[in-house]
Design brief:
The chain has eleven helices and 22 strands. The radius of gyration is 22 Å and the shape is globular. The longest helix has 35 residues. 31% of the residues lie in helices and 29% in strands. The strands form four sheets. Strands 1, 2, 3, 9, 10, 11, 12, 20 and 21 form a nine-stranded mixed sheet that branches. It is an alpha+beta fold. Strand 6 and strand 7 form a beta hairpin.
């Protein structure tokens, strides 16, 4: 049964058990899980499609396991993707192996590189079989509906005009610049990051192969991903140095890119201007409070992650799974209490804090040191030397990267025929 829709002199309104704001990994996965559980749920996505200049496209084994538990993995892995099992790097010219996922005792010991829009479109198509799930594209949340101290839904803007989405529970999955978080007045604790990232594509010929993942030198760092017909490049710069890089000119940047990664020499011609290079402003932050009465925040809206390890997508999916596990049955009877909503934070805060702490360690001991530059050779950290020298240790960072801290498993039950309305 679809959510109830009505018209009034003030515009359209929808009444639904749960309104999810944001159609990213957290929002689409949670929408799928709640729809599967028979909960009346609307997912609002402000854009007409899922295509973005930058969206994380690493699907880790923890997410692949979730897809397997949902019975979706076979069709999912039919989508075009590349697989990464080892992570190798050059630190000051010294070859290092950082992680080996082949050492994991898991069903899917690889990271799948897949455009995020393909992942999100897949979830949207798979969710169409649930009558209780509706995805509203081109629908932007602009404010919250309040009844006293309780959040009772959102006001949204569509191409056809304004609409009120009245909901027992509103869940914000609208990213690190969350409008819901702003309207709810929730304060963000900034942890900080010393770098930003220049994100661009370089053409790749069929005969070009290289296993190197990261290149770290005094004053500079770059990561490259083999995406089949192109190289995805992430050139790391000091925080706030974007204007200085542009002032030196495009050719100076490209010359440095080719010097660090000679394999890009031919394909780098695809980068014709700074318009082909996107700036990713890196932030690490989190909320201490994830809830208000009638409201829950998860994913990047609750905790922005650094791109280190490419874990953001997978943390968001883990949040969604935990949310469905803890709240789906309760939502069948109305909005959970704020204490029941806060169970999601209590479940997910430890993995978030641990992951961010590990990212900060990498920032402080590798990235910051590299970005400082200078004439002295880059000293490879002792722990990296040990992991390279003792291959059995390579399974430890692989596990932390691939599965994370306390991975979630699908425990919410499918009840596709439950009433969709409150």
């Amino acid at each position: 049964m679809k959510p109830d829709t009505s018209q009034s002199a003030q515009g359209s309104s929808v009444k639904v058990r749960c309104c999810i704001v944001g159609g990213g990994p957290a929002g689409m996965m949670l929408g799928y899980l709640l729809g599967r559980a028979g909960i009346g749920v609307v997912v609002l996505e402000k854009h007409a499609d899922f295509f973005r200049d930058f969206r994380g496209d690493t699907v880790h084994p923890s997410t692949l396991q979730v897809m397997d538990e949902l019975g979706l993995i076979d069709d999912f892995l039919k989508l075009p993707h590349q697989r990464l099992q080892t992570m190798d790097g050059l630190f000051g010219g010294t070859h290092m192996r950082i992680a080996d996922l082949r050492r994991l005792h898991t069903k899917y010991p690889f990271i799948a590189f897949m455009p995020q829009w393909d992942f999100l479109n897949f979830l949207r198509e798979a969710g169409k079989r649930f009558a209780s799930l509706q995805v509203m594209m081109n629908t932007e949340a602009v404010d919250l509906i309040r009844r006293g101290e309780t959040i009772a839904g959102v006001r949204a803007r569509t191409p056809d005009g304004a609409i009120d989405i009245e909901a027992d529970l509103t869940i914000a999955c609208d990213g690190r610049h969350s409008i819901v978080r702003e309207r709810a007045g929730l304060a963000v604790e900034e942890i900080g990051a010393p770098m930003d990232v220049l994100w661009f594509r370089v053409g790749r010929r069929a005969d070009e192969t290289e296993n190197l993942f990261a290149r770290v030198e005094p004053g500079r760092m770059m990561v490259t991903f083999d995406r089949g017909d192109y190289w995805q490049c992430a050139y790391v710069i000091g925080k706030g140095q974007h204007d200085a890089v542009k002032a030196r000119g495009l050719q100076a940047l490209l010359d440095e890119v080719v010097r660090m990664a000679p394999i890009l020499k031919i394909g780098v011609a695809d980068v014709k201007s700074f318009d082909d290079i996107k700036l990713l402003t890196v932030a690490i932050n989190r909320l201490s409070r994830w809830t208000r009465p009638g409201l829950l925040l998860i994913g990047d809206a609750a905790h922005a992650m650094s791109p280190i390890g490419g874990v953001g997508v997978n943390l968001a999916v883990q949040d969604a799974v935990a949310t469905a596990n803890l709240l789906a049955d309760k939502l069948a009877h109305g909005c959970p209490s704020e204490d029941e909503l806060d169970a999601v934070r209590r479940r997910r805060e430890f993995p978030v804090k641990m992951t961010q702490a590990m990212q900060v360690v990498v920032q402080n001991h590798i990235i910051s040191a590299a970005l400082q530059g200078g004439d002295r050779p880059l000293k490879v950290p002792l722990v990296v030397r040990l992991v390279t020298a003792l291959p059995w240790l390579q399974g430890i960072p692989a596990r932390l990267l691939a599965l994370g801290v306390r991975p979630e498993h699908v425990r919410s039950n499918p009840r596709e025929h439950r009433s969709a309305t409150s």
